[in-house]
Structure formats: structure tokens, C-alpha cells
Design goal:
Elements lengths: L1 H10 L9 E10 L2 E11 L4 E6 L5 H8 L7 E6 L2 E3 L4 H6 L2 E4 L11 H7 L11 H14 L15 H14 L4 E5 L7 H16 L3 E5 L3 H7 L2 E6 L2 E6 L7 H9 L17 E9 L7 E6 L3 E5 L6 H9 L6 E6 L2 E3 L4 H7 L1 E4 L14 H6 L2 H4 L8 H14 L16 H13 L5 E5 L7 H16 L3 E6 L2 H7 L2 E6 L2 E7 L5 H8 L3
Parallel strand pairs: 3-8, 3-9, 6-7, 7-8, 13-18, 13-19, 16-17, 17-18
Antiparallel strand pairs: 1-2, 1-4, 4-5, 9-10, 11-12, 11-14, 14-15, 19-20
Helix pairs in contact: 4-6, 5-6
The protein binds adenosine-5'-triphosphate and magnesium ion.
Magnesium ion binds next to helix 2.
Length: 510
């Protein structure tokens, strides 16, 4: 029985296999939160060790312990059998640990070479041989198959290329431990493939790789072992990823079994609510037309860059269309600004929710209640009680991990911040929701809750558009799937015909 053999792997003493990186009893506490609770974990040379777990489980905190940002109040961290104390991030870098954070820390205005130097440290005589170091980084990247011009300004590079520079930085110091925090969340599929190729090469060189992700497929594709965290504790380490059952992995993460993450509920649809005709603008190669009904969930599938987000922005009035019209409930509308759109009952929850603006020092409740509509309401009256109530409701509905509604949002984990921003929109009185990658960075348990909320909205007669690059998600939640490729709509399939093969065929460039 596979389940049994997995248990045995867990029970085995990790020290028996001599891991390069060893954590023992690591405990990190924030005010009111035990972020890591006596965590022990070993990462071997030449392995990709996946870390999974719900939002707020402690994954990023663990990475910050490795990088000297967070300081454990108890526990021991050793590298190659030697105990380490990372008082500063510099100490961690010098010891050969590199973290590739999700928000990359590069300066867009500087060149690749200058950015590479930012993280470099003087040698022990205090002298820095800049040229040699840059040469090394570029050489290392080149060797891994990524050609980057060192004189290029970083702002002209794609997210994927920027990530490669972070990796270059790690390699120019010959980091032995490289940890990635949800690295693929903003990458195109081609960039993801490139990243995986490089990670495999790093692994073959005997480096110890830590890989945080919410994407199940990535674990199966890339990881040798996977450790699941829950509430700051290491719950289990699975040694045989290939033989690991998906449902078992999910239930280990969320602490209960979810038989069907999507839990699709069929429903009757009403009249056309949103009608888009010949809409044209930046990012599209052909005028776009489609209609969506009241009570309908329409998926928009496509590769990153296919023009889906651009189309949403045109509908919403965030970008001015050059041609075409939008009809809402039979009335022709023309949104000069997003504010107009929200007033008329159309909301866009953008894919880049972090940039769209959370106020990090403001509370969860304030962030959740900053809504365009209330903001611009005629009377502009803030109803404190109602806001607190709304905050409480969504904190419970989406299991947002926060001490209370009054906690500063900046102290929440990445995924929990996402949930707050998503609630901001779900709490609105809106007829047409345009949701761009609504579950990015959100754990599998909460995703299931979010899908439930989307069905609820549709059942109440709202129209929900879900833009997603996650094939399983579009197929799982949508009543109908539209596909985009290279700036145009290439297909419109009812649920029964929306198979993975059919969708991929319509989405892939020739
Ligand atoms: N600087 C901080 N101050 C206060 N609390 C913090 C701080 N950093 C993290 N926490 C808390 O520690 C817990 C673990 O957070 P962490 O960021 O490690 O989660 P995570 O597993 O990375 O989640 P996600 O998948 O959402 O990114 C959360 O409850 C979070 O709110
Ligand atoms: Mg995190």
C-alpha cells in the first residue's frame, strides 16, 4: 500500500541521509502568532525539496529564517553539519544560501550588471573585483542556456528574465542552498519551462533546492520530496513524490479531505447581461466579441500574453478602446474610467492585486472595505459597524488567517493578503465580475471556498468572468470557456466540449 510506505518515509530520521541543510526545532514567533513551531527538516544535496501548505502555514517564514531575515527564538540551523547563526542577511549570503523571492528585488532603472553587483559582497580584503563577478554571473547564466546582455536596463526585461538575474546573483556567489518562493506565479508557460530546466541543472550540480508552491502539478513535475506545513508545524515529509496520491496531499495540507476542489454546481442562466461587440484596443490583434448571461460563469483560457487581461481592461474602462461597444443589461455603456464601471455594476479584480494597491499599514478591515463604490458614494458615509461586520464575514468565509480585522494587512502571509483583496470585490454590489487569475497564490482549501462563493454569485444572477491560465480551474468552474490566442478569441466551448485537449489546441500558437 502506497500510503504505508509514505508513512515509513516520514518516520525515518532525516539525519540518516545526511542532509546538507538541516533545521532542528526551529521556532519563530510574531506577536500573537507562532509562525514556526519546532520545525525540523533536512534538505539533501541534489534534491528539489517542495514545501506546501495553506496560506499562512509558515513557508515564507521558513525561507526568511534561511536568509537571516527572521530570527528563530529556538532551534538550530546547520549547513553541512556546521551550526549557523544568521544574525544578518549578509551572514546567510556568505554561508552560501540564496533566496529567490516572489517579489524580485531588482532596481528597474539599473542595468543587469549593476543589479548583479548590488547583492555582491566584497572579498575578505574588502576589495571587489566587479568585472570578474559580473563575468561569472553572465557566464553561469549562459551555461544554463539564458543569454542576457549585462548592459541592458532591467526594466526592459520580462519577469522571467529578471528572475534569471536573481538566479545569476545566487550563482555568482556559488550558493549551495537555493530557495524559491512561488517562483512561477507570474511566469508564462515558456518561462516556467525554462526555469524548471535551470532548477534541474542546479540540482544535477548537487545544490540543495527548496521550492515553495501552491501548484500541485509542479510538485509532481519537479520535486523529489515534499514537506507539508500546517499552522507553523511540519506535518509530513513525503519521500516518494511519484507514488504520492493527490487527494492525500491535499488532505494533508488542509487537514480534512476535499473530494472535489471545484465542487461545480450547474444552474440555469438568464438573459444576456454583458454584450461585447467588436471591441478593439491595445493588446488585441482582432476585434473581440462575446456575450455573457446573468447567472453564467464564463472562463477565459489562454497562455500568458494572449490578450485576456487586456480585453478585461478594455471592457472595464481601464484602457480606452479604439473601436467597438459594450452593452450592459441592454444599455450601451462607455466607461471613461473604472469608477464609472463600478458605478454601473462592473468590477475588475486585476491579476496583479499586490500592485493594484493594498495599504500595507492599514488594517485588514480597512483594506477589505476600501471599495470604489463606497468611496465614491454620494454621501460618503462610512458605516463602521457594517464594515467590521463585512470584514468578519469574509475573514470567516475565506478562512483569512489574521488575528483580527484590526491587524495590519502587511503582516499577513502573501496568500492571505490576496484573499483580503479578493473579498473587497466579492463584497460589492456588482452585476458583472471580471476576475483575473482570482486564485493565484491562494491555497487549495481556500480556493475551494472561493469557487463556492463564485457559484453563489452566479446563482444570485450575477455574471462572473474568470480569466485563468490554470486549465483545471477553467474546466472545473466555468459553464462555458472562451479561449484566446495572440490577441484574439479563438474558441467558445460549452462545458461539455471544454476538454483539456480542445482548449490547449485553441490556445497554443501554431
Ligand atoms: N512580519 C510579520 N509580522 C507578524 N506576523 C507575521 C509576519 N510575517 C509573517 N507573519 C505571520 O506568520 C504566519 C506565517 O506566515 P508565512 O508568510 O510564513 O505564510 P506562508 O506559508 O508563506 O503563506 P502563503 O502561502 O500565504 O504565502 C502568518 O500567520 C503570518 O500572518
Ligand atoms: Mg508565503
Amino acid at each position: 500500500m502506497t500510503a504505508l510506505s509514505q508513512e515509513e518515509t516520514t518516520a525515518a530520521d532525516p539525519r540518516a541521509v545526511d542532509p546538507y541543510l538541516q533545521l532542528e526545532g526551529i521556532t519563530v514567533r510574531f506577536p500573537g502568532v507562532l509562525a514556526l513551531d519546532q520545525v525540523s527538516l533536512g534538505v539533501r544535496r541534489g534534491e528539489v525539496h517542495g514545501l506546501m501548505g495553506e496560506n499562512g502555514a509558515g513557508k515564507s517564514t521558513l525561507l526568511k529564517v534561511l536568509s537571516g531575515v527572521n530570527h528563530p527564538e529556538a532551534g538550530v540551523l546547520s549547513l553541512n553539519g556546521v551550526e549557523q547563526q544568521f544574525a544578518t542577511t549578509k551572514a546567510a549570503i556568505e554561508a552560501g544560501v540564496a533566496i529567490i523571492y516572489q517579489e524580485l528585488h531588482l532596481v528597474p532603472e539599473l542595468t543587469v550588471a549593476e543589479n548583479l553587483m548590488l547583492g555582491a559582497l566584497p572579498n575578505r580584503f574588502g576589495v571587489l573585483d566587479e568585472k570578474a563577478l559580473i563575468k561569472r554571473a553572465i557566464h553561469e547564466l549562459d551555461r544554463l542556456g539564458e543569454k542576457i546582455d549585462p548592459s541592458m536596463q532591467v526594466k526592459h526585461l520580462s519577469i522571467g528574465q529578471r528572475q534569471m538575474i536573481e538566479i545569476g546573483k545566487a550563482l555568482m556567489r556559488d550558493a549551495r542552498v537555493i530557495a524559491f518562493d512561488e517562483p512561477t506565479s507570474s511566469l508564462s508557460s515558456r518561462e516556467t519551462e525554462q526555469l524548471f530546466r535551470i532548477i534541474r541543472a542546479l540540482k544535477a550540480e548537487g545544490r540543495a533546492i527548496v521550492y515553495v508552491t501552491h501548484r500541485m502539478d509542479e510538485v509532481y513535475e519537479l520535486c523529489d520530496r515534499v514537506t507539508v506545513f500546517r499552522d507553523g508545524r511540519r506535518i509530513e515529509t513525503f519521500g516518494d513524490v511519484d507514488g504520492l496520491d493527490r487527494d492525500r496531499l491535499i488532505s494533508c495540507m488542509v487537514g480534512r479531505s476535499i473530494s472535489d476542489v471545484y465542487g461545480y454546481r450547474a444552474r440555469d442562466v438568464g438573459a444576456v447581461q454583458l454584450d461585447v461587440k467588436g471591441l478593439m484596443g491595445p493588446g488585441l490583434s482582432e476585434p473581440a466579441s462575446f456575450a455573457a448571461r446573468a447567472g453564467e460563469i464564463v472562463g477565459f483560457f489562454g497562455l500568458v500574453g494572449a490578450g485576456r487581461s487586456e480585453l478585461m481592461k478594455l471592457i472595464y474602462g481601464a484602457v480606452k478602446p479604439t473601436a467597438g461597444e459594450v452593452t450592459l443589461k441592454g444599455k450601451r455603456v462607455q466607461f471613461a474610467t473604472p469608477r464609472d464601471a463600478v458605478r454601473a455594476g462592473v468590477a475588475l479584480c486585476p491579476e496583479d492585486r499586490k500592485q493594484e494597491g493594498i495599504v500595507t499599514i492599514a488594517s485588514v478591515s480597512d483594506n477589505l472595505n476600501i471599495s470604489c463604490r463606497r468611496h465614491f458614494s454620494r454621501f460618503n458615509v462610512l458605516n463602521g459597524r457594517k464594515e467590521a461586520q463585512t470584514a468578519k464575514e469574509y475573514i470567516a468565509k475565506l478562512a483569512i488567517k489574521t488575528r483580527s480585522g484590526d491587524t495590519a494587512i502587511g503582516t499577513l502571509s502573501g496568500g492571505n493578503q490576496q484573499k483580503v483583496i479578493l473579498s473587497r470585490w466579492l463584497a460589492e454590489e456588482i452585476d458583472v465580475f471580471l476576475m483575473d487569475e482570482p486564485t493565484r497564490g491562494i491555497d487549495v482549501g481556500a480556493r475551494s471556498e472561493i469557487y463556492g462563493l463564485l457559484y453563489g454569485l452566479a446563482e444570485a444572477g450575477r455574471t462572473v468572468i474568470v480569466v485563468s491560465s490554470d486549465l483545471a480551474e477553467v474546466i472545473g468552474v466555468a459553464d462555458r470557456v472562451l479561449v484566446m490566442k495572440e490577441g484574439r478569441i479563438t474558441g467558445d466551448l460549452p462545458k461539455a466540449q471544454a476538454t483539456p485537449d480542445a482548449l490547449i489546441k485553441l490556445a497554443l500558437p501554431r
